[in-house]
Predict the 3D structure of the following.
Amino acid sequence: MPQPKRRYVTADVFTDEMFGGNPVAVVLDARGLSTAQMQSIALEFNYSETTFVLAPRHPTHTAHVRIFTPRIEVPFAGHPNIGTAFLLARELELHGTPTIDAFVFEEAAGLVSLRLIRDRGVTIGAELRAPEPLSIRSAVVRTVAAQCLSLPVDDIAVTIHPPQIISVGLPFLAVELGSRDALRRAKPNLTAYESLLPLDGADSIYAYTRDDTARPYSAETTLHARMFCPFDGTIEDPATGSATAATMALLATLGNGLNAERHWRVHQGVDMGRPSLLLGRTETRNGLVVATYVSGHCVPVMEGSFVLEGATDCAVDP
């Protein structure tokens, strides 16, 4: 029996311009695909992540979404969620179907709520709420973090926090650097990576620096960041919403506001030629971060289809 064509669409996420931001591929109907087939498709696209859309398990939710890097399935990620919500909303708009203002995706990390961002009735992006509260895990000594990033130890800032494994759904090692120049010079040392990672579920390093002109703990904080993830088949990620969300939550927790909403602007991908802008906000109550949000604009890029022999009529894997 001939297999049906499966449509996919792609978008650049956290950008207003094509070929900026972080690309994501979305397979719009993943019914019948096994985990192994999804992994092979993700490797074929070779983006930092590819998502697969399935029918929701609960009728009040929008979809069940699975996310794959070229190497593994991950429980949650930022730019794939925002890009998938954007592309699903655009599909509805193209077919004249009225869309709601919010989506809820079922994922391995839990329910991910997304609010669509529109301009004159057209979806241009989305904002996600991180599915988990901040988890602070192992600290890493300064010298080891410096070796992983091929930097002198003095470039690692520890005034606010040590190099730390943190997560709001997907763990990363967050390392603050002392200057924008240090961030520009950073590059992964694979030997040091292999001696340290994976650790507490983290296999990537999110290096960042605060804007030299920004006031500490001001209403809006500007960060510059880079994400190195060679173990996931991508040396550097242009925009990483999950790591950005975790870092914002960490800094908000360590800040001086007991009850406050803080706003964030995070520039990533600049040093690799794919500039990205991630906007965030954190809500703090009684010294604890109770909600973390990341938003960004998206641009549709490509669409196409493929035929995969051997797929079945119903999902093989949970």
